[in-house]
Structure formats: structure tokens, C-alpha cells
Amino acid sequence: MPRRSLRRTRQGPQGSAARALGAGTIAALTAVAVIGAGGVAHARVAVPKIVVKDGVTQPVFSYKDAIREHVYVESSVDSDRDGRKDRVRVDIVRPRESDRGLRVPVIMDASPYYDNSGRGNEGERKVYDAAGNPAKFPLFYDNHFVPRGYAFLAVDMIGTTRSDGCPTSGGAPDVLGAKAVVDWLNGRAKAYRPDGGAVRASWSTGRTGMIGKSYDGTLANGVAATGVKGLETIVPISAISSWYDYSRMNGVKYWTDEQPWLADYVDTDPPEKCAPVRTELDQGEDDATGDYNRYWAESNYRRGTIGDVGNVKASVFAFHGANDLNVKTNHFSLWWQGLAKRGVTRKVWISQRGHVDPFDTRREQWIATLHKWFDHELQKIGNDVLRQPRADIEVGPDRWITQADWPSPGARTLTLRPGADGSLGAKPAAGGTTAAFTDSAGPQGTGYPEGDLVSDPTAAKPYRLAYVSGPVPADARISGTPAAQLKVKLDKPTANLTALLVDYGEDTRVDYLGQGEGIETLTTESCHGESTPADDACYKQTRTKTTASPVNVVGRGWLDAQNRSSLSAPTPLTPGKYYGVRWQTLSQDYTVKKGHRLALVVAGTDADYTTETPTGAQVTVDLAGSSVSVPVVPAAGADVSTLVTPRTRDAWRGPVNVVLPRQPRNLF
User: Fold this and answer.
1) Helical H runs in 240-362?
2) For the segment 415-442, what is each residue's pLDDT rounded down to a tens digit?
3) What is the DSSP string of 313-325?
4) Cα separation of 331 and 309, whole Å?
5) What is the mean pLDDT of residues 622-643?
6) How far apart are CA 358 and CA 352, in angstroms?
7) Which residue numbers are catalytic?
8) In this predicted structure, what is the pLDDT of residue 20?
């Protein structure tokens, strides 16, 4: 049955019993004397109050007795072209006292995943009661924060679960549907009960915080980029800031048909309903060229047509895995850079895991910090959360440091240059020194996997070049965004280029490439908030999953050579002519241990993380005109140039027959 019919026919009683003050509440209530007719004093119950202790709100409101309801907010878009504005399903849980005069701020998770992959490490979905109201909300936000005087809203993104419309993989309807909810909370948009009656959010202060991982956090970024009033803060976890950068880098595709595939995945309606929209997504993404165009500008929240980082008024508490190869680190680093330029209040945690939630990384500390953050930003409580260091960084398995900002303010650029003998050091190669490789089809016609690219680094291979330093004399922490700069000539108009920054040295590292992407899920549980028979506040615990290995790819970056100057206007290379090409790798925070070796690997098509067809072009590299720039944090008083020494002629060969798992792509 189409979603619109479900919404228009469902009935939900809204009687006085549903609004009565629950007997189980333990909120602080104050008796106030009121002089009535005849001068007789009567006692009445005052408006319930939020209780604060040690700078944070206390759990004084009953979760069991909380009001659970749903409304449909009218958006500004008609994404399914049925002639009616799409309505957005909003599931709400709020303290019962908010119907007795208590006004509460809102924590909101807008998501496309509530009826498909589910949310969180355990893939939780919404559960409804017989009246269609929410009985179970995924994740712990409701269980923890409602007793502390918040409303929690689980919003079905347009085109998903019980909302109208068609999903657009980050396009305007996705963002504007969630924005409409913020507008409704602040009296600027209409909403309707299941029986069709208009409804206002009179229980809300209007102050809203959006939170969520992956697509959910992406919607938070997108809504913040509209500059909507009332959105006080966002907590984007592993979130996209530009959908072009999610689909590709510098003209090189990570996935083919990504946009229509994702829109189809999150839409559980009959496929024919939104088929025309998916056709438009397929055409707009332009897989044939991989170029940036007006289609991609709509879903660019850093500098796009519906959103721009310059519009952001909300504070930002971001979390990202430094080794997330689904939503890659350039989403966070470029967003963060834009926020910093505009002086936006911000905080960040960066882990060594992949696409993993902080709840499953550093649970107790995360909940405590998030609690303080929301209390400060939404309840306006003067706690110390902004007096703490801005950045928490995991520098090794479960080893966290704090610093004033990210990247590390102490980072300095270390420029490393390839040598004719295969070394990597500070001195450039002699003029006229060259080396060559082929953008080769490889065994499967898709290029070579990263394991092959980093294996046996001192051996000559026709499909890659490798340059290795000597042992580093001290720990060298990389903090920021490395960049490769090559002087190349091709025998064809273009080639796919891969640059890998590699750490060679035996170590125990977070296993971000394996199943779990750095965590192992246990059978034991921990509980965070209040439970009901339908909504359990307990979740499986996790622990860090590590692996011992002799090699780790620290930085990855890709470029279609014809996009060297522009993502939207490719310029083919003239065969036989040298060109300068420069591109950044993904951002990173990583420590190369003393005695390890740092390497630059340059190759053609990466079979693990791109879906391009190798061109077969021969790529000749002028070594004297080529380098890699690495942001490194030196020890106090140390010269950054001394951190890497050229490889001397020794017996070191490096690992052979390396097999690197391909990181899973998890949508939850």
C-alpha cells in the first residue's frame, strides 16, 4: 500500500487520558498559593522544572509514562510529483509534563534507515503500537535523554519508511524534508495529526539538536548548511559533506550507479513509484565521465545550491573514523576546515576505526560528553564542555590524547622526494631521472588490489612505483592531509592515478579493514537510560579488535589525470608532453613508529576502492619534479626534515604476498 494512503487513513486517539500527568513522574513540583473567589487560598501544581546537578540534567521524568505520538509535517517539496507537498512522518517521545507547561528542547535523528538496514550496531528498527504510535525507538537517545527533560524525534526521511515522496540520495528533498521539521518546531511549518487535524509543537522550546551516523549525520550537515533558525547544534557521526566526494574523488568513481542504487535501497515502497526519480539520479550522476556538474552541486553542503558551510549557525560536535573508507575522511576534514574559517563553535573526536559509532568505540566517555554537549547547547546550562580541549584523537588502539584543535596545531609539512634508487627522502633526484608504470588492467580487468601494490616494495613491478625511506629515528605522527605532486607524461590522453602513503613495520594496529572495522561485538550488555517492555535501553558491548601486520596503508588518493585542473571541465593530456598534477590523499591522524619505514606508492587503477576501467596508458614520472607532502608533528625542538632518512643499501626487502582485506561497506 502506498505510504500516503497509510498516513491518510490511520486514526489515533488524542483524548485527555493521553495528556494526563503520569503518576510515576518524580519531577520536582512546586506548590503555588493562588487566591480564588471569596479570598480562599488554593494550591496548584506549578510548571515542572528541569533538575541540574554538577552541570548536567538529571533523570527526573518518567520514561515509561512519556507521551508517544506521531505527526506529519508538511514539507516544501513534491518529490514524487503527485501534485501534493510531501509530508514527513515524525515519531515523538517527550516527558508527560510537557503537556503540563514544561517546554523542552528536541534531539532529532532524521534517517532513511528505520525500516531497512536499521540503526546502530544491532540494526534496530522502529516498532509501532496498535494505534500506529512509536513503541520502540532505535538507539539509546530516547532512553537516556527523555528522563532528563528532552523530547526525542525519530524522523523518517522523505521517501522512506512512513513519509511521503521519493528519496534522492542527498538531494534537496532529503534535506528540505528534515529542515521542515525544525521549522515546525519553531512555528514556521504546518503539521497534522493522523486524523488530519492541525497540530503545533507548543511543548517545544524550538531549540533543536540533530544527531546521527552516516546518512543520518549527513542530513544534519545538510540542514545546518541551510542556516535554518532553531537548529542550535548538530552531532554528525561519520557524515557526508558533499555527495560527489562520497561517490568519487577527482573524477575517479568509487562506485558505479551509486546514486540510484542507494535511493532504491532505502525506499521500501513498490519500485515503480519512484522509478522516474531514480532514472534522473542515474542521468545526473554522469558515471560516464565522473565529472562534477550542477546535479552534484545540489548535494554539496560545503558550497552548493541548497546548502553552504557559510550558512551554518549551529554548533558542531563531529566524530569520524580516520580509517573510514565508506564515508571517507575528506568529508570531515573539508567540512571542519570550512567551519573553522567561519568561527563556528565546534568539537571533534577522531578514532582509528572505520565506519564505527562512538557508542561502540568509547561508550561511557561518549555518553558523558554528549550529555554535557546537549545540555550546554540545548538547555543552555553553563557546564565545562567548551572549556575542555577541542579535539580527542585516538593515536593507537584505545590510546587517546587531547589537543587544542585538529589537525594538530604543531604539525609541520615534511616534503619527501622519490630517488632513482627507490629511496624516499628530502633530496630531489637528479634532473632527467624518470621511472614508468602502466595503468594496467590487472588479473580481473579492474586494476590491481592494494595488497599487490604494497607487496615487495623494493622489487620492480610494471604496474606501480614504490619509494621507501630508511627507518624513522623517532615516532612520527601524521596529522592532517598529505598531498602527492607528480610531473608526468602519458602515451594516452588520460590515466587513473593512485597515490598510497604506506607504513612498513610490524605493529599491532586497529583492524579497521576486517569485519567490524575495528570492533568486536560481545554478548554482554550495558544499559544507558530507562527501559520499557517494548524499548530496551541495553546494548551489546564491544571491544577493540586489533591485528598484527607488517604494513599499513596510511593515506589513499585517486585522480583521473584529465581532471587535474578541474572537476567539471576535463582536459585530456597531449601524449608525450609533461604535466604537473597534484592531488590530496584522504586525511589522516596516524603515528609511524620508530624504526618503521615510510613509503610512497604510485600506481594506476585501484581495484579495491574504485570501479574505473584501466586506460592501459604508460605513465612516465619525472622524479626530480615529484614529491609527497606529509603534515608531521615533530617532537619539541626537533627539525621535521630529520624524521625521515633515505633508505640505504641494505638487505631490507619488505613484506611479500601481502593480502589486505577490502573494508566492508556498512550502511548502519
Assistant:
1) 243-247, 258-266, 275-285, 294-298, 329-341
2) 999 999 999 999 999 999 999 999 999 9
3) -SEEEEEEETT-S
4) 12
5) 88
6) 11
7) 214, 324, 355
8) 32
User: Is residue 143 within 8 Å of residue 269, measured between CB atoms?
Assistant: no
Split at pLDDT 50, 70, 90, the class of 644 is confident
Report whether pLDDT(548) > 50: yes
Q: Which of 115, 252, 222, 142 is nearest to 585 (CA)?
A: 252
Residue 6 has pLDDT above 50, yes or no: no
Encode burial over 492-513: b for 16+ CB neighbours within 10 A, e otherwise: eebbbbbbbbbbbbebebbbbb
User: What integer is the mean pLDDT of 585-593?
Assistant: 97
For CA atoms 521, 525, 530, 533, give the dihedral sign.
Answer: positive
Residues 6+ apart with CB under 8 A from 343: none
Predicted TM-score (pTM) of this structure: 0.93
What CA–CA distance (Å, rounded) separates 26 from 28? Answer: 6
| Residue 542: closest CA among 176, 122, 158 | 122
> Parallel, antiparallel, or unpaired: how do β-strands 87-94 and 151-156 relate?
antiparallel
Give ∠ CA 239-242-247 in degrees, rounded to 5.
95
> How many Å apart are CA 175 and CA 231, to the nearest integer?
13
Q: What average pLDDT score do residues 193-212 get?
A: 98
Phi then psi dihedrals of residue 615, to 5 deg: -85, -20
Geometric angle at alpha carbon 519, from 514 and 525, rounded to 5°: 145
Q: What is the mean pLDDT of residues 612-623?
A: 98
Residue 532 sits at φ, ψ, to 5 deg, of -125, 170
Distance CA 650, CA 569 (A): 47
Q: How many CA atoms lie within 13 A of 553 on its CB side?
A: 32
Q: Is 667 helix (H, G, I), strand (E, B) or coil?
A: coil
Q: What pLDDT, in 10s, does the model give residues 359-396?
A: 999 999 999 999 999 999 999 999 999 999 999 999 99
Strands across the sheet with 191-192, in order?
191-192, 67-74, 87-94, 151-156, 104-111, 204-213, 231-237, 315-321, 346-351, 391-396, 399-403
* 3 state DSSP class of 192: strand
State how far the Cα of 17 lies from the Cα of 314, in Å rounded to an integer.
37
Query: Which of 433, 241, 234, 271 has the alpha carbon at shortest distance from 337?
Result: 241
How many Cα atoms within 13 Å fall on the side-chain side of residue 503?
Answer: 25
* Whole-number Å distance between alpha carbons of 47 and 79: 42
Beta-carbon-side half-sphere exposure of residue 406 (alpha carbons within 13 Å): 36
CA-to-CA distance for 425 and 414, rounded, in angstroms?
Answer: 10
Beta carbons of 71 and 193 less than 8 angstroms apart: yes
C-alpha cell at 513: 579493514
Q: Is the dihedral of CA 597, 510, 401, 215 positive or negative?
A: positive
User: Can you name the residues that pair with 509 across neighbouring β-strands?
Assistant: 547
Backbone dihedral region for residue 338 (phi beyond 0: left; psi -120 to 50: alpha; all else: beta) = alpha
Q: Evaluate whether 546 touches 512 at the Cβ level (below 8 Å).
A: no
- Between CA 225 and CA 407 the distance in angstroms is 23
By percentage, how much of the chain surpasses pLDDT 90? 90
Residue pair 329/501 in contact by the 8 Å Cβ criterion: no
In this structure, the number of other CB atoms found within 10 A of the CB of residue 451 comes to 18
Q: Which helix (H) or strand (E) element contains residue 141?
A: helix 141-145
Q: Which uninterrupted H or E stretch holds 395?
A: strand 391-396
